[in-house]
Design a protein that fits this description.
The chain has 334 residues and is an alpha/beta fold. The protein folds into two domains: 193 residues, Rossmann fold; 122 residues, N-(1-d-carboxylethyl)-l-norvaline Dehydrogenase, domain 2 (Orthogonal Bundle), CATH 1.10.1040.10. 38% of the residues lie in helices and 18% in strands. Strands 1, 2, 3, 4, 5, 6, 7, 8, 9 and 10 form a ten-stranded mixed beta sheet that branches. The longest helix has 22 residues. The protein is globular.
């Protein structure tokens, strides 16, 4: 299987490095200092087993790679549309496109029979450009549970976790899922098929829609959010509203909100990826994590007042800091 990871940040880098070490052939599309470091010195991984390095095939020139059997997108949701022109040479009639992304994905309505009130979400895919470029039939769902970060260009750290849930948008047990799971197995990570990928999406989203925007508003780690008694009602209302939206679209994920909040309170004082981006002066992914749920709520005629308030405040704070615009429009950006 011909595999390419487009945008090999922390998660994509760990997946690529472990697959290469396991004997798989894979190419990476990256840019800037990260690409330069990998080309000169290889990709270095720090994990519980120590420090190790692999030689990688990496480039910025997608024209040189040709069409792929499996294209793994490692870019954040708000940077995908601007990168479509660079991605298109990698996609052929039989390419599977698997986006490793937090929040509601661009293919959300594909394969769903409940509340089919739209084809795409403007908060995730304005005008349906991503959907039209790839075609919904190419999409394969993926939810990742991993703690990782980029230490410096060419060096990524694997702190904890390592589960990849992979499933069809229509929840079928397809041969395609079996092939992709088998192709990624040399990584040694927990690559698991799912027959309810949307519930997996919502289950992870409950952590993202609470911890990520509130960490930016409070400029605090998880202990100051999930461990603060005064925040309990706010967090409960956010997940309750999101759960109501999830049920409207066929998912019963997170029926016990208190149990989920108790689990989140054990995360310690780590920082969310969104807060890390805010502190580093990078643009923030707020639309797919928060705005998408507000938009789905409107489509299903479900009120989401707490989510709407958190979304408006976080967007405004990021906007004033120059770190947010409605779906980035910088061309050719990965």
């Amino acid at each position: 299987m011909k595999i390419c990871i487009f945008g090999a940040g922390a998660v994509g880098g760990i997946l690529a490095g472990r697959m290469i070490r396991g004997g798989a052939a894979i190419t990476i599309v990256a840019r800037g200092a990260h690409l330069e470091a990998m080309q000169k010195k290889g990709l270095k991984i720090y994990d519980r087993n120590g420090k190790w390095k692999v030689k990688v095939e990496s480039t910025y020139n997608t024209q040189s790679l040709g069409q792929q059997d499996l294209l793994i997108l490692g870019v954040k949701a708000h940077t995908l549309a601007p990168a479509l022109a660079q991605i298109e040479p990698l996609v052929g009639a039989h390419t599977t496109v698997m986006h490793i992304v937090n929040g509601i994905p661009w293919w959300f309505f594909h394969g769903i029979n409940i509340n089919p009130t739209a084809e795409y979400l403007d908060s995730v895919d304005p005008g349906g450009l991503i959907l039209k470029t790839f075609g919904p039939e190419k999409a394969l769902g993926c939810v990742v549970h991993i703690a990782s970060n980029i230490i410096k260009p060419g060096v990524v750290e694997h702190n904890a976790g390592g589960t990849f849930l992979i499933g069809e948008p229509n929840n079928s047990e397809s041969d395609r899922v079996k092939r992709v799971v088998a192709a990624l197995s040399p990584s040694g990570l927990r690559i698991q098929p799912s027959t309810d990928i949307r519930s997996a999406i919502w289950s992870k989203l409950y952590s993202n829609i609470t911890g990520n925007p509130l960490s930016v508003l409070l400029e605090a780690g998880f202990e100051g959010i999930f461990g603060a008694p005064g925040m309990r009602d706010v967090l409960y209302n956010i997940i309750k509203e999101a759960s109501s939206v999830a049920r409207a679209f066929g998912s019963n994920a997170c029926q016990d909100i208190d149990k989920r909040l108790n689990g989140l309170a054990t995360l310690g004082n780590a920082k969310s990826s969104t807060l890390q981006d805010f502190e580093a002066g990078k643009s923030l992914e707020l639309d797919a994590l928060v705005g998408s749920v507000s938009e789905l709520g409107r489509l299903a005629k479900i009120a989401t007042p707490t989510i709407d308030l958190v979304y408006a405040l976080t967007c405004q704070k990021a906007l004033l800091a120059g770190l947010y615009s409605r779906m980035e429009n910088k061309a050719n950006s990965i």
